[in-house]
Write a structure and sequence with these properties.
The protein is mainly α. The protein is built from 3 helices and no strands. The longest helix is centred in the first third of the chain and has 30 residues, at 14-43. The termini are far apart. Residues 87-97 have a biased composition (Polar residues).
């Protein structure tokens, strides 16, 4: 007899989301820290500024991974309705001529 596999919809598969998020975070951390190290070696002579450029690159990588992972878990942003503006408010605005 064929086994019946339960298929979890993509938007509810938390394990796949965590795997993708961890993979994305590690990649962006390593790539941006490497870019910071290369930039630090290229532009700075002081070891302190070189380490600062590595830390800045790593922070950029982690920050961008965090933003992407939060979008992955929360879904795309919803379109909020525009606020209603009364006709009297638009009539009282002076024209700039």
């Amino acid at each position: 007899m064929a086994e019946k596999k339960e298929m979890i919809p993509k938007q509810y598969d938390i394990d796949a989301k965590w795997d993708a998020c961890i993979d994305l975070t590690v990649r962006r951390f390593v790539y941006s820290a490497s870019a910071g190290a290369f930039g630090g070696l290229l532009f700075f002579r002081s070891p302190v500024t070189r380490w600062a450029s590595i830390a800045f690159g790593a922070g950029v990588g982690i920050g961008s991974a965090y933003a992407e992972c939060s979008r992955l878990f929360d879904g795309p942003p919803t379109n909020l309705p525009l606020p209603k503006v009364s006709e009297t408010a638009t009539q009282n605005v002076p024209d700039s001529e």
